[in-house]
Structure prediction request, 131 residues.
Amino acid sequence: MSLIVGVGVTIGLNAIAPCFSDKAGCGLAEAYRFFFVPGFVLLAMIAFGISAAGKGRERPLWLTLMTLALVPVFLVLFAVGSDVLSGRATTIGDLSDSLLAALAFWSVIFVQWRLICDFLRRREAAWQASI
Prediction:
């Protein structure tokens, strides 16, 4: 489900957002963002799978969501810092590409978090009903 949402968000944002890079590079940038989505899903599955182990799962799942949500923010800050230190100016195209990738990542991790929380809630209710 999160893969479908991630692909849908990526395609939708690429259709709406203007292309700031050269015309030959727009399609390639869109393809890269599209092919990163399965990696986002895999990363979120591993992170949430590790945090859902054990008892008291709600807080670790929430902390994992917040940690994963901060990853794109720090990557953008590191990219801007690298540009400043190397003397290169950060363009609106760089920030736009980063934001488009971050929005797809955030949609994937939010859907994964929602699915896992719902699954654990239903499993807990079924376990309580069987007692």
About this structure: Helices lie at 2-16, 23-51, 58-86, 92-130. The mean pLDDT is 84. The CA atoms of residues 3 and 41 lie 6 Å apart.
